[in-house]
Amino acid sequence: METKRRNRETTFVYKDVYLSLGSNLGDRTANLNRAISGLGELGQVVAVSSFYETEPMGFAAQPWFLNCAVKLGTEKMPKQLLSVVLDLEQQMGRRRVQKNGPRIIDIDILLFGNSIIDTKGLVVPHPAMHQRRFVLEPLAEIAAEVRHPVFKRTVRELRDALPPGQSVKRIEHSSPRMNVEQRK
After folding, report:
1. Residues acting as catalytic residues
2. Domain of residue 29, CATH code
3. Which of 23, 79, 169, 170 to pair with 176, CA 20 to 30 A apart?
């Protein structure tokens, strides 16, 4: 979805972007909150899901993750957003040492409006999001009726079609440090 906002004589076109955030090193809650604050510098954080504790996939011999989903309104183009998200990860101490290995922060672009993007370094919708409960559970909390532009199914439908497994547990009272109303 696009939203137009006027700022004096300039019109900005904001795209609704959905992101998945995860952390399994250090203070996971603080890491997610710091990333959410950093995303606020890139646009308007419109919604943040609860935090969910999730078991690692792929490389299982590592600490469990804390995950959430974020809806961001941004005027950035997809490659620009990817670049600043990667910078944010690096500023937070992310080092890409082992594929699917432990990390301080991981930020994935899941959906970018209704766009379908397939370029070197960026594929949107995220190519594995429909297979990952740790992505779809938090995303369904803030965007249950949003349609996947390739599969034409809602986030809720994709989540409900997942096979059993992939332990994902909502953390009670896990709202981010600042609620969305305070960010506006």
Report:
1. 94, 103, 106, 108
2. 3.30.70.560
3. 79
